[in-house]
Write a structure and sequence with these properties.
With 289 residues, this protein is of the alpha/beta class. It has helices at 37-50, 71-85, 99-107, 133-139, 166-183, 203-211, 213-217, 252-264, 275-288; strands at 2-4, 9-11, 16-22, 54-58, 92-95, 112-115, 144-148, 191-194, 224-225, 269-272. It has a single domain (2-288), classed as Dihydropteroate synthase-like (TIM Barrel).
């Protein structure tokens, strides 16, 4: 199996590591560390040295409660980094839900559109003439696309999380989202699915998506897993310290455990902050295989 993207066919016979590049001041994990173009590019280069197979550049935080960012501000953050990152020799993904940002990114040579809204977002102020993300992806000859499940939107998703058994709900949503793209002429090989760990789900529901990941794979598409440093891992502490939670910077060990479990259960791409350590952990999995 492979993932067709603008410039690369990504071989998915072994799990691939997608390194996170947050060009933001307010991301939950590393906000502000790579906020300038120079800092973000240095981080891109370091992630590649650490073994990243794909870079994922984002200019707007999607942490719970994060305020929306204007289109102009997002373009100003992302495009200068993307313009240089596409020269680094690896596939480059742009993490955005705004069609004008997608359009500009694809024009600069981005390989993948990674959309937390699964191409559903609409600019209500633009009226009937607003760009549609699905149309942009369909019009592009080869770009890859990752469709994520999100319950509600970032400002409210954890205020009122999903109810009931989330696994079939997430699978149906992702299947329908993919089918909509197929109907527009997008080749199946261009589509990746993401269950959206932490996006409007409870801790138990997130772990259910990991435990029953095989059910999501039955949809017939490769899966991206994004467990890195998520708040669901904050409670992974000794049983004699139940009132303690792990800070974001203390979640490396549970992040690696979740990544390896996701890969062992068939995830094709792991979206992570800690690339070097994830690559090392995956080598253990490869060794026993």
């Amino acid at each position: 199996m492979y993932w067709q993207t603008s410039r690369y066919q990504i071989d998915l016979t072994s799990p691939k590591v997608m390194g996170i590049v947050n060009v933001t001041p307010d991301s939950f994990s590393d906000g502000g560390q790579h906020g300038s173009t120079l800092a973000a590019l240095k981080h891109c280069e370091q992630l590649i040295r650490d073994g990243a197979d794909i870079l994922d550049i984002g200019g707007e935080s999607s942490r719970p409660g994060a305020p929306p960012l204007s289109q102009d501000d997002e373009l100003a953050r992302v495009l200068p980094v993307l313009r240089e990152a596409v020269r680094l020799g690896v596939p480059v993904s742009v993490d955005s839900y705004k069609p004008p940002v997608m359009q500009a990114a694809l024009a600069l040579g981005a390989d993948i559109i990674n959309d937390i809204w699964a191409l559903r977002w609409r600019d209500e102020t633009a009226g009937a003439q607003a760009l549609r993300g699905a149309d942009l992806v369909a019009a592009h000859p080869k770009c890859g696309v990752c469709l994520m499940h999100m319950h509600r939107e970032p400002q409210t998703m954890q205020v009122a999380p999903m109810q009931g058994d989330v696994v079939p709900q997430v699978r149906v949503f992702l299947e329908q989202s993919a089918q909509s793209l197929l109907a527009l002429g997008v080749a199946k090989a261009r589509i990746m699915l993401d269950p959206g760990i932490g996006f409007g789900k409870t801790v138990a529901q997130n772990f259910a998506l990991l435990a029953r990941q095989a059910e999501l794979l039955q949809a017939g598409y490769p899966l991206l897993a994004g467990w890195s440093r998520k708040s669901s891992l904050a409670g992974m502490v000794p049983s004699n310290t139940p009132d303690v939670t792990l800070a974001v910077t203390e979640r490396l060990a549970p992040s690696l455990a979740a990544a390896v479990l996701a890969a062992d259960r068939g995830a094709a791409v792991l979206r992570v902050h800690d690339v070097k350590e994830t690559v090392q952990a995956l080598r253990v999995l490869a060794a026993i295989r």
